[in-house]
Structures are given as C-alpha cells and as structure tokens.
Amino acid sequence: MSYKKIALLLLICFTTACSFAQTLDEDGEIKYIKKMYSNILTESPAHDWLHYLCKQVGGRLGGSPEYAAAVSYTTHMLDTLGCDTVWTQAVEVPYWRRGAIEKAKIINSNYVGTLDLAVTALGFSAGTGALGITGAVVEVQNFEELEALGKDKIKGKIVFYNRPMEITRLNTFHAYGAAVNQRTAGPRKAAELGAIGTIVRSMTVKQDNVPHSGVTSFKNETPIPAVGIGLQDADLLSALLKKESNVNVNIQLSCKHMGNRIAQTVIGEITGSEKPDEIILVGGHLDSWDLGEGAHDDGAGCVQAMEVLHVFKRMGIRPKHTLRCVLFANEENGLFGATEYAKQAKLKGEKHLAAIESDAGGHVPSGFRMDAAANIAKESYNQVKNWRTIFASLGLWDIQTGGSAADISRLKDQGTVLFGYRPDSQRYFDFHHSANDVFENVHKRELLLGGGAMAALVYLIDKYGVR
Ligand SMILES: [Zn+2]
C-alpha cells in the first residue's frame, strides 16, 4: 500500500473515531445526567404528587368517582408543570365496585369449629346475596388437576386454587407470571365445571395474612363469587383439608358489576423543537386497585412519568422530539385506556418513536426491558447498548430485551421502541393489589431515583435517537 493510501486510511479512521466520539460524549453525558439526578433529588415534587394521589384520592378503580378525582388532579398538575398541551381521552370501561361486605369462614369443622378467613373479592367477582354461599372446598394446584376431577367432583363445590408463587425464582415477576392464571382464569374454569365459588391463594411471597385482589375474567360464563385469601389462612385451610375430608366454607360478598362508565386517559406534552411530529412517550396507569391507595401500583409510575417532563422544564431543556406524558385509564380491569390510545394514535397517524412505562413499583431502579417489532428490535437494542456505561454509572445495570410494560405494549405494531422501567422486584408483591399498597410503603429517594432513570433514558433518546 502506498503512503498516500495509508495516510488516507488513517484519516478515515481518525475522522470516524472523532465523529463517533462527538456522537456520544460519554463523560459529558454522565456529568450532565448526574446534574439531572441532583435536580430531581432536591427539587422534584413527585413525592408530594404521590401523597395527594394516595391520601386525597385513594384507591381508584377505572370508572369510579375516585378515578375521576385522580383525572382532575393530574390534569391540573400537568398543566401547572408547564406542558404546552394537556388533554384527556375518553374511553368506555367496565365498572365493578367492591361492597362493604367481604367475609369468609370455615363452618363446623371437627378441628377448628367456625373460623373467619382473611379474604377479599377479586375484580368482576359476583356478589353472594345476604346469606352468602356455602359449599365443600376442593383444593387444586392447577387446571390439570381441576379438569381431572371433572364436573362430577366440582359441581356445587368451592374450588380452592392453592399454587404458591415460587420463592426460588429470583425475579418475583416471573413467579407472579407462573402463578397468576389461577386468579385470572381460575374462577371461570371452575364455573364451567359447575363450581359455586372460588378461593385463590394470594399472589405474594410475603408470609402474612393480607389478601390480594386483582382482575378475574368470566367471558361467557355467569360470574361466580371469587376471593383471594391471605397466605396464612390458605395454608391453614390446606392443612385442614388433609385432616378432614369435608371442609365447608361460607362466603359473603356484596360486590357488584355496575355496568359501563366513561373514564379518561390523561395526556400532557411538551412540543418538540426539531421533530414535533415524533413522540417520546413516558407513562404509567392512573387507575389502581381499591384496597390500598395504589401507591406502588401505579401511583409511583404516574408521578415518575410526570417528573420526567418537569425536570426538562426545570432545567430549561427543550426536547427535540415531543415529550408526551400519558397516564392510562383502566389498566387493571382490561387495558381499555391503552387499547383506545393505540387505536387513536393509529387513526391520527401519530409516530411514537419510543415509549417508556413505569409499572413495576417505586423501588430501587435496576434498569429497563426493551421490546420492539422484529424489523427494528436489533438495531434499537444495539443503539441502547452504546449507553451502557452511562447507565452503569447511574446504577442501572439491568438492560435487556424481552418484555416492556402492559399499556405501552399496545404500540408495538406501530414501530415504537418500548421500554419497561425495572426497579428491584423483591418487595413489590408484598404490596401489589392489597391493603398494603399505601404511600407509607414508598421510599421517597427510591421513587425519585426511578424518575431520574426514566429522565436519563428520555434525554438520551431525544438527543441520539433510538435506532
Ligand atoms: Zn400496575
């Protein structure tokens, strides 16, 4: 090779290296993002927003008056934090209401006599009438066992699903995923075989006696009463069934399906300075279960998403792309807000470059899970991998593909790169869908660090693109 050619080659290498270095100034970005973190840790009102949502609004099932109050509050907050536009998107949702009565007891046992059990109605459970329902309990671990028993042994009985979340799974969401079908589909499958009621072991790994709720779906079957039971009482009932062949339980519930109502998804945005038609979405879901205050699930995610826009405003960062905060309606009872949002986005031809959702609690941040349509997945993941050193400097070690979050998953087929924000999962199911999901159980610093993690990702996507 001639000297000229070598010189030319060196020049090309040098300019490529320089342009790459200019493209991503790692040290500079780490410094700048740490400034964002400092600003969030000292200035963010997100913890106060969460306090209001929990203590002034409380649990907020889609379609309820409490949900409407949450819409009013967050709309007002998005407006005051300086969004260019704030609006709501209406969607029809099914409204189920928990009644004042939710009781269960073992009756006339040879060993324990009559004994109260800690239960709570599952969403879309039928009520029982004043006298309740009484039946013999049949315990199963899974649908195979249920089907093997068949109509003969299930008809007229109360089916007790008692498969625990596996404590050996290191990520509790995986344990939840492997156990939750007994809650979502268990009552329906029991009803198909003529069961008169269902008791489901709560989805938690905490060995207390606090029952957890959550949605169950009946499709075409007439709903039957269905309750979640605390773990200590689940173990007690199971032990009793091993000693006594005929254990009868009475369940009384005054819950009711109220028909359909209109609920609103809340949206606020800062218009992009260079690419206003390309949207970076940050969000969470505004509805919650009604037993606690919807603090971790998903008040935390909502205020973290709002905080992303607010820190851009406080620091005077004008995003190139449009930053849109979306607080989805009715995730818990069937993703109605998210489905409507994706439908409207498609109809309007909106382009969502990326969507980031926080819906895994307000615990210590660990990273993000990415998902995208097959044709863009690799490219977008490679781009995000370039930022690994930056993320690692923020304690965000866990950047992987596979899964994102429920609401934003509806945008996958529109070419959006999806990110599920991931905090540490170990204690999430101590609170999830239970009376324990209250403001006091969210740690302010951990909540704010989560807002920082999301703001850092949005900042990098806005500046460098995502594919
Ligand atoms: Zn949630």
From TrEMBL:
The alphabetized UniProt keywords are: Aminopeptidase, Carboxypeptidase, Endoplasmic reticulum, Glycoprotein, Golgi apparatus, Hydrolase, Lysosome, Metal-binding, Metalloprotease, Protease, Secreted, Signal, Zinc, Zymogen
A Gene Ontology cellular-component term: lysosome
Residues of the Peptidase M28 domain: 266-447
The reply to whether Cytoplasm figures as a keyword in the UniProt entry is no
Name where it's found. Endoplasmic reticulum; Golgi apparatus; Lysosome; Secreted
Instruction: Tell me which InterPro entries the record gives.
Output: CPQ, Peptidase_M28
Q: Where is the signal peptide?
A: 1-21
On whether Protease is a keyword of this UniProt record, the answer is yes
Query: Might you name a Gene Ontology BP term for this protein?
Result: proteolysis
One Gene Ontology term of the molecular function aspect? metallodipeptidase activity
Q: Which Pfam families does the protein's record reference?
A: Peptidase_M28
What is the protein's quaternary organization?
Homodimer. The monomeric form is inactive while the homodimer is active.
Descriptive protein name: Carboxypeptidase Q
Q: Which organism is it from?
A: uncultured Aureispira sp
Q: What is the lineage of its organism?
A: Bacteria, Pseudomonadati, Bacteroidota, Saprospiria, Saprospirales
